[in-house]
Amino acid sequence: MEEPLSPPSDMSPAEFRKHGHAVIDWIADYLEKPDRWPVLPNVRPGEVRDSLPQSPPLRGEQMDTILEDFQRLIVPAITHWNHPAFMAYFANSSTGAGVLGEALTAAINVNAMLWRTSPAATELELLTLDWLRQMLGLPAEFFGTIADTASSNTLYALAAARELHPELRIREQGMAAREDLPRVFIYCSEEAHSSVDKAVMTLGFGQSALRKIRTDDRLRMDANALAETVESDRKSGAAPLAVVATVGTTSTTAIDPVPVIAGICEREKMWLHVDASYGGTAAILPEMRYVLDGCDRADSLVVNPHKWLFTPMDCSVLYTRRPDLLKRAFQHIPDYLVVSDGTDAVNLMDYGVALGRRFRALKLWFVIRHFGVEGLRSLIREHIRIARQLSEWIDADRELERMADVDFSTVIFRHCPPGLADEKLDEHNVRILEAVNGTREVYLSHTRVRGRYSLRIAIGNIHTTEAHVRRAFDLVKKAGRAVS
Ligand code: PLP
After folding, report:
1. Whole-prediction pTM
2. Which domains does the chain have, with CATH numbers?
């Protein structure tokens, strides 16, 4: 039997320096050339796990060995979101400033639950989100907080919406087995993100409380259908509570008519939440500000710097003009968290489920300062330009069909060679996607547009150039011919 170890001290500063320099060197090389590996790894499910020890080491290991295993076993089995040919889902990227901010967040390891538990983290979050608010052209009264994801933030917004009606006493009594409660409805378009479904499921509204409003020919919420549904629900004695409008839907980046929806919400006294997780960022460009038209009248809006603002995962921002209601939904202060720092001290734990809060604002502050607003604008502008260029190539090609408008940096299309029957097109494009991703040179994803299987190219990575997108386009064409 081995002697028990005396408690080890942390890594010495000298060791930390040595490994820290090695890690920074590795990151610098990685970010310089994230395409040295294929964008998609060549692994089968379970392979990574099987390649590693199945039980933890009893004695500490050398950092050199750990880092070597990271490079040898982990990196080759990663899907490289930083790769310039990553164009699936909503492509994003890490950036030097963001990585450095993230490293410092880990080093100082503060938990900004209360103002007192890290005044600078709380105040920098408020300040940085006010900067971002100005960049997006949102009203001064919008109060912002950071959470992990848009999914959490949409859930928080709908929890706050419930507090529009304190007389329903949902905070105190919940919604289960409440015969005194009217039916409560939430509205979104049939194209809204699945996070809205998850929010209503989690909050106890239930999926049947979510009314999916039909969309028009451009896949935008049909505001007349919304108004009619709300009116008929009200007539039946239900309580229409909130609408989730989307600026940049996941599938096709459609923009719901927020100004009209805002008018309906004001008239019907419903909460308006805008999901601008992806598309909102475009509003930092003066010429794209229109995408947030009407959002100044929203009660809340979510935008994700970790999607299209070059900030490493995770960083999602919720703005609300009703922080009082967000607080009413979530504030709960046990004795051990009572502080007496006065009303000027904002305690961010009051605005969401999490007590512990990572210092996520630091990396966003670094990113905004490093690039500057003009720098960020030119990156976003270039992505939009490349997307429009791609859209022109598609429109000029008789074998390709564009499936949606290109409002941002995402293009949806399919290959439909003359002569191939309509009912064969879905399968044909499934095979194209498999063939293209099978090259592991680019990574594209798919969606269905009114049921029709379509390919998606999303540009959001700082390293992506027109040449990468042209290569993806050529690979689709080549695969289209090969699988025909
Ligand atoms: N809303 C929209 C429109 C999205 O496209 C996505 C993800 O792509 C989400 C919400 C969910 O984002 P998150 O991963 O931050 O929860």
Report:
1. 0.96
2. 111-358 (3.40.640.10)
